[in-house]
Design a protein that fits this description.
globular, 26 helices, 58% helix, mainly alpha, single chain
């Protein structure tokens, strides 16, 4: 079992003197490793003067935060420390707290790293007890070793594919650091472990941290210069990147979790989500947020059956890194992390950026009546001349969503909002439709529905509808849309539906079509196939 990593040296060899280590396990990187930014092909991008201007007080930092909200941290040359402060990793309340917080975080990382650096001493124990051929024994350290080797091999595959066009990511030192960071995080978070896409997040953090790293030989003139040199010490890039990655993943890791359906097949009321968090979030963006900001585009994608998770899964998990040039993606990360505290670490700003990206290409999507083209356009996002347009649209959409937060929440969680809805007539709710086979009440609802519909149609000419009548019909259509949405998103209702799910959904769509026909004066009689089908079911 072997890879290029020093962690997985020839375990088949008889000698136990080969040291099995993780590169960078000590608090100071080995002197033989030339890991400066220049060596790795990066231009330094830090400023002692700007650091003093922005980090001298909490008030001065607010100026830097405003720059982050506009995606303009690149000009400040303080992006790395701004990100750390915005995410709560860097305590900027005082100079002493800045130094102490970073120092402690680095020590914690090296301690965790060292735990996986003690394998040599363990496997040198009595081979009769710690036998590599008996690795199936969970108490045998060789069991963990083989599991770790498999994990590292999986991570390595993605690391080798990360930003192949950039020499920086082809450097062995950078690859080793990415391996260590992802491996340690995966070991400390076994419930999720490593998932494809995490490598993209670590890559961005390493790139930014290295660009602003400071060499030990750099001249310092003041106490503030010494502080910045400590915070951006290139010897501790790996530890610093891990700390911020861990902080980001504290609220973002759920997007990588795999949904595992319950093994018990019995019908049990369970409030837990029946779909993964990434699927729910994707559905929220396209099926709720887009409905609010651009109903026409929403209807188009829905009619083409464009499933949101197909393209949004990568957008969300990789934090949009794969959709833009790296420099442009950094500007989006500025506004994402500027909202970190406000969103309580959930990186909610990603949702609004995704919404802006969808509407940004609305003309191209609406121009083609082809689902394959829509997906291709979304999966291969076109180059953007300036990120200012995307950022401006992001905040515009965010304002719209927040202004209608109560209604939005009702669509996201229709069951909680069910009791607040006003009913114009006894149109069956989703749950009553689903339980109609078990209740006689549905028969009276069917009759009521047909009677109301017949009365309303008989009162108006077949060739003309009044404005008030059209408004009522539009309200009925909207109610049916809500019912369809509830059916597809409410786990309890969906569970009750069982094998009848597709039939019930088709019924709602047929009823919606009936009302649309009435609205356009095509409706002939309340006993038409649509009304009959709806009442019958």
């Amino acid at each position: 079992v072997s890879t290029q990593s020093t962690w997985e040296k020839r375990i088949g060899e008889s000698s136990m003197d080969d040291e099995l280590v993780i590169v960078g396990a000590k608090q100071q990187a080995p002197k033989s490793r030339k890991s400066s930014a220049e060596t790795l092909g990066l231009d330094r991008s830090y400023s002692f003067e700007n650091f003093l201007n922005f980090f001298s007080s909490v008030e001065s930092f607010q100026k830097l935060q405003k720059a982050a909200e506009q995606g303009a941290l690149d000009e400040t040359k303080c992006r790395w420390n701004a990100w750390r402060a915005l995410a709560g990793v860097l305590d900027i309340s005082s100079k002493e707290s800045m130094r102490n917080s970073i120092d402690q975080q680095r020590k914690n990382y090296y301690l965790e790293l060292e735990k996986y650096n003690n394998l040599k001493e363990t496997i040198k124990e009595d081979p009769n007890i710690f036998n590599p051929l008996a690795a199936s024994n969970t108490n045998n350290p060789w069991s963990s070793f083989f599991e770790d080797s498999e994990l590292r091999a999986t991570i390595k595959q993605d690391i080798d594919r990360t930003h192949q066009e950039k020499d920086f990511f082809s450097n062995t030192i950078v690859k080793d650091m990415m391996m260590n960071i992802l491996f340690i995080w995966s070991k400390l978070n076994p419930a999720i472990s490593y998932r494809q896409g995490m490598n993209e997040i670590v890559a961005v953090l390493l790139y930014v941290c290295y660009r602003e790293s400071i060499s030990p030989n750099t001249k310092r003139n003041t106490e503030d210069d010494e502080l910045l040199a400590f915070l951006n010490d290139e010897k501790h890039v790996e530890a610093d990147v891990y700390v911020l990655f861990q902080k980001i993943m504290s609220g973002h890791a759920e997007m990588f979790a795999h949904h595992q359906p319950p093994q018990n097949k019995k019908k049990v009321i369970d409030d837990r989500p029946k779909t993964s968090a990434i699927i729910q979030r994707s559905s929220k963006i396209q099926d709720v947020y887009l409905l609010f900001v651009d109903r026409e585009l929403y209807n188009h994608l829905k009619s083409k059956q464009v499933e949101p998770q197909i393209y949004l899964l990568r957008w969300i998990r990789c934090m949009l890194v794969r959709e833009f040039h790296l420099h442009d993606a950094l500007a989006l990360w500025d506004i994402i992390l500027a909202d970190y505290q406000n969103s309580k670490g959930t990186l909610e700003m990603i949702d609004y950026i995704c919404l802006a990206m969808i509407t940004f290409v609305r003309a191209a999507l609406l121009a083609k009546d082809d689902a394959a083209f829509c997906l291709q356009r979304l999966l291969k996002f076109p180059p953007v001349e300036t990120m200012a347009a995307i950022i401006e649209m992001t905040y515009k959409h965010k304002d719209v969503i927040l202004a209608n937060q109560k209604t939005v929440n009702g669509l996201i969680n229709p069951q909680a909002n069910q009791s607040e809805r006003k009913k114009e007539f006894s149109l069956p709710t989703p749950s009553s439709v689903l339980n109609s086979q078990k209740s006689r009440e549905s028969q009276s609802q069917e009759q009521s529905f047909n009677e109301v519909l017949a009365k309303k149609q008989s009162e108006e000419p077949s060739n003309q509808r009044s404005h008030a009548q059209k408004t009522r019909i539009e309200n009925y259509i909207e109610k049916l849309e809500d019912m369809s949405f509830s059916l597809k998103t409410d786990s309890q209702i969906k569970d009750i539906a069982g094998t009848r799910f597709d039939q019930i959904l088709a019924t709602l769509n047929e009823a919606k079509k009936l009302f649309e026909d009435l609205k356009s004066n095509k409706g002939q009689t309340p006993t038409s196939s649509g009304a009959h089908f709806f009442g019958k079911n």
